[in-house]
Amino acid sequence: MEKITSPQQHDDYPERWLDCESAVMAAFHQLVIDAVSAGWGEAEVALVIADVADEYAVELAHKSSLPKTPTNCQRNYPAFGPDLSKGLEGL
After folding, report:
1. SS3 readout for the chain
2. Comparing C-alpha atoms, which of 70, 33, 66, 69 is closest to residue 49?
3. pLDDT tens across 2-18, in order?
4. Is the model's pTM score more than 0.90?
């Protein structure tokens, strides 16, 4: 499992959301690769991860601990790592 880096500062700062996203992305890629390597389909892995994340967010919202999304957060979704549609060759 990839080591996830810590926030650059303890307090809130303008790029915190993007830093968190970047820190989690490598571990996410490895999770997808591991699941596909185990025989799960890439699409089903993506859907299950989305479902699990959604359920977790709902739990946090009920606990009132879900942080507000920063207003300066610009979400752009680059390619999520290697294209696994043709298998794991070349990884």
Report:
1. CCCCCCCCCCCCCCCHHHHHHHHHHHHHHHHHHHHHHCCCCHHHHHHHHHHHHHHHHHHHHHCCCCCCCCCCCCCCCCCCCCCCCCCCCCC
2. 33
3. 688 898 888 888 889 89
4. no
**CA separation, residue 35 to residues 17, 24, 45, 49, 79 (Å):** 26, 17, 7, 11, 18
Unique residue bearing structure tokens 């926030």: 7
The phi-psi region of residue 57 (left if phi > 0; otherwise alpha if psi is between -120 and 50; otherwise beta) is alpha
